[in-house]
Specification:
Elements (H helix, E strand, L loop, with lengths): L4 E8 L8 E9 L18 H15 L5 E7 L1 H7 L1 H20 L6 E6 L11 E4 L2 H4 L1 H21 L8 H4 L5 H10 L15
Parallel strand pairs: 1-4, 4-5
Antiparallel strand pairs: 1-2, 2-3
Helix pairs in contact: 1-5, 2-3
Length: 200
Amino acid sequence: MAKTWLIGVDEVGRGPLAGPVVVGAVAVPIGFDWSLLPGVADSKTLSALKREMISKRVEEVSLSEELYCAVSFVSARVIDKSGISQAIKVAIKRSLGRIMSETKCGAETMMIKLDGGLYAPQEFKDQETIKGGDGSEKVIGLASVVAKVRRDRYMVNVAKSFPAYNFATHKGYGTPDHCRAIRLYGLSSLHRATFCRKLL
């Protein structure tokens, strides 16, 4: 009998002026022992240190093949071309495709829980969108943590190539310092031009 997987899906980076939008998907078997991952919650409520600690523990638990993660990035260029909603749909499809590949299971063996206004492709019949799900469902909260850690790491790394914007500090969000830098230096290739119109 095929194992049934519980999948959590969440996105991070919907609102920043720069950088990718990122979707995390996490798969655990029904009845997963959440005591293996203490402290899992909505990534927005956790410190950066706590998120990193959980992410490291995820890597350890993943070795048991009782937990799988997939994280998909969609660039600022695609966001400008297709819109943020379409970019998120693309990332959800990619992440779920990777989960299917990793677990070697089909959509019929997956129960998917998504945060907020997110929806999986129609082939995933057993799906539920939950308002505030990143706070109420551990599997969604874990997806948000994994996605947030990966996006933050990316922004810290790419900041070295764009020193004028200080991406490592604000991660692309529209802080006063970031907005001042945009007015002073214009847009980089990492910026979402459609999000920055009022600043130029």
